[in-house]
Amino acid sequence: MDSGNTAWLLASSALVCLMIPGIAFFYGGMVGSRRILNMMMMCFGGASLVAVLWVLYGYSAAFGNSLGGVGLLGNPLEFFGLSELLTEDPAASIPLALFAAFQLMFACVTTALVAGSAAGRMKFGAWMVFAGLWASLVYFPVAHWVFAFDNADGTVTGGWIANQLGAIDFAGGTAVHLNAGVAALALALVLGRSKGWPHSHGQPHSRPLILLGASLLWIGWYGFNAGSALSAGHSAAVVFLNTAVAAAAGLLGWALMERMRLGRSSSLGAASGLIAALVAITPACGAVSPLGAVAIGAIAGLVCSLAIELKFRLGFDDSLDVVGVHAVGGLLGTLLIGLFATDAAPNGVSGLFYGGGFSLLGIQALACLAVLVYSFAVTWLIAKVLQLTIGLRIPEESELKGIDLIAHSESAYRNDEEPVELGAPARS
């Protein structure tokens, strides 16, 4: 065991775990004051359920030997209960139990992201059932496709995107962000619009909470990306640097777009630009130079600031812009590898702008298309079945009264007794 690598991955796992309350605060600040507790409970509840499923069969489905060697799903019973990870592997540079814990945090974060499209109108019990089914049928298989690599000695076979296709996704642009964003779209379409959408519950109730959540996410993202190097070395250092400069460029890009379109730059926009850029650099952080990272971050900030308007134009109630930020940002970051990748970076491949031709761009596009189609189709089926059986929506009068009181018999703020106000959409 390498003590330095182990220490770094322990720290990275804790940083990724920090992203769960980061999402909860970020999302919680964006909703109305009568929906914050439910929003945060969806994040914590979904993540907690996924953690238990990870021990039972999730880790096996994601990182077990591929069933039939075709790269679609790991053997879900191979590491049932994870008791096999208690024995130290003398050939490993980090404990396998630590790797399982690190990847567990990815599964928890991804599930929490999806909750943003259902804010304020989904039964908490239905959400918990949905979260368990979604992690089992969507996240675990896609994680196997993208993150499970074949062993050099051939004793373990992994996912088809990582091995047969050879797409580059350093830390989860497809498996995490595109996956969660597309799932959010499918769930939003099945759920339908909130009562009075887009005018009711439109304004975020606490912008300081939004900035707090974004700050926690920014810090946690260094563990998310640089921790995916699985070692405390040169690759982790390059990834750390690329993550930092991309995030800054994204904040500036979104702020600039708001300034040009609306005549002002908002705190919500700054936080959103930061997150959009972090999403986009996630798959590319090991493949590009710092200058390429700045370009990807800036492009994500500019494009995602426009993409969030699609929900108003197309009429789907993606409450907290999971589609515009995570689906679009994840898609952008994964595709831009085909343009900005340089063989001087840790991944060692070149994109179009560095003499690599169009082949890498095509590979990246195929990986995106596969995750997009699979995630949308299976998520839509899960949500539709639950809608027809246990039901997904709370009653309309409960939406107006506030889901916190209905679902949890609690109120976030003691003096929160004013009637629900109808105002302009949050992003108007």
Automatic annotation (TrEMBL):
Family, similarity comment: Belongs to the ammonia transporter channel (TC 1.A.11.2) family.
Chain segments annotated as transmembrane: 6-27, 39-57, 92-115, 127-147, 167-192, 204-224, 236-256, 268-284, 290-308, 320-341, 361-383
GO MF annotation terms: ammonium channel activity
SUPFAM superfamilies: Ammonium transporter
One protein family per Pfam: Ammonium_transp
Source organism of the structure: Arthrobacter zhangbolii
InterPro entries registered for this protein in UniProt: Ammonium/urea_transptr, Ammonium_transpt, NH4_transpt_AmtB-like_dom
Name this protein carries in UniProt: Ammonium transporter
Alphabetically ordered keywords of this record: Ammonia transport, Membrane, Transmembrane, Transmembrane helix, Transport
Membrane topology category: Multi-pass membrane protein
Cellular location(s): Cell membrane; Membrane
NCBIfam families in UniProt: amt
Residue span, Ammonium transporter AmtB-like domain: 7-413
Top-level division of the source organism's lineage: Bacteria
First-listed, main subcellular location of the protein, grouped into a coarse class: membrane
GO cellular component terms given for this protein: plasma membrane
